[in-house]
Amino acid sequence: MMQIFGDFIDNLPPSHEYLMIGFSPSSVPLKQRWRNNGLSADFLADYLTTFFPGGNESRDGYDAKAEVKSAVSFIANELLENAMKFNDEASHKPVSISLHLNSERLVFLVTNSINPQSVGKFQTFIEELTTSDPNELYIRHLEKNAEDENVNQSGLGFLTMIVDYQAKLGWKFESIHQEPEIIAVTTMVQLTV
Q: What are the extents of the domains in the chain?
């Protein structure tokens, strides 16, 4: 089984500059992993800045390099948090994140396993995300979160990527083992630079 949703490029053009990090999510309790997610996201952002031109503010105070670094840190952190939070620990599969630098865009790929019973609900959310007006959906989710503080699957991270950073998102679901069933989901985020 393989299903693709959104703006997912299955055969990504080769990149000469990329960084990949793998995690064993079951080696450390989830609460301790949150801090590592932020450190890893910041590391990816710092790594990227060595290849990204710029760094000098223009006359109007705009610093493109700092803005891209901030975007990379935010997006990588959100992707890692989602991957760790929704990873199927029973699969014992690692979580990976990679950042690919091309001349016109940055591409994030995060792969984790997902509980087979959670696939339908996640795909329903993806359908809503890819077919709705992102600004309206963002407001609805903010209101929903304000009404119910116990919401743990808000989708605001994905919506922020789209609304604030004009990112393109895509997903690939594929069965990687039958007995027991293990499904991997790869989330792709493309950011124009």
A: 2-192
